[in-house]
Design goal:
Layout (H helix, E strand, L loop, with lengths): L1 H19 L2 H14 L5 H7 L8 H15 L3 E7 L10 H8 L6 E5 L10 E5 L3 E7 L4 E7 L2 E7 L4 H10 L2 E5 L5 E7 L4 H6 L7 H19 L1 H8 L11
Parallel strand pairs: 6-7
Antiparallel strand pairs: 1-8, 2-3, 3-6, 4-5, 7-8
Helix pairs in contact: 1-2, 1-4, 1-8, 1-9, 2-4, 4-6, 4-8, 6-8, 8-9
Amino acid sequence: MERGRSIHRRAADHMAEAWAETQWGSQALAGMYRWTRDAEWSERIAVLGQPFSGWDMGQLFALRCLAGLWMEGLLTISEVEVGAQPKQDSQRQANQQALLLLPEGISATVDPDQRGADDDGLVRWENPLSGHFNDPSDNESQPDTIAPGWSPLEVGNTDASSTCFHLARSGALARWPYGDTMLTIMQTRPRTLIQGWRMGDPAYDEVMDDLVEFSNWIATGRMFGPKIMRGMMEGEIYFPSPKA
């Protein structure tokens, strides 16, 4: 999992550096930093990310993208009671046992090894899930449903850039943060939203366009590897010479 994480962290760092060079971007990053320091929002923020290395600029960029999805009414959130908080990552069997108590029709599988995987497991639900989204016209929560389906699972510490990555690739993510007894399933509206943006569907939106660029950098890194990705970010597009 570390290789995948290093790619999305590097992509987020790259985007944050570009933001920091503009007045709008630097203000957005500063606003997100203040948000992470507000204890009233700590549980909500933990669902979006509990970064492994803290809230550096790259993770603040990712958090602003996620907040933008929510504020613009492009994210549906559904909460399911687990009845227990997740244990440390090494106690994967205990976490699996706790998730066996999810309501009927919802199942979660924790990857027992999680070696090199992009996530901690998988969640499936057989029936529509009741949820809510933010109506940007009045910033009031409105009811919504998530159709039967599946999502990657992230337990405990998770980079906000990883959450962005999953929403970009899969359109959905199930989060079980440390200190929380709820499993939160989030899905973009529609599920193919970010992939559609990558194909140029919507009108220009500063935050969302940067989320697409972030997603494109991840695709580049997964295709060519972190070394070439880094070279492209630095303006040196190169490919390794073949070995003799």
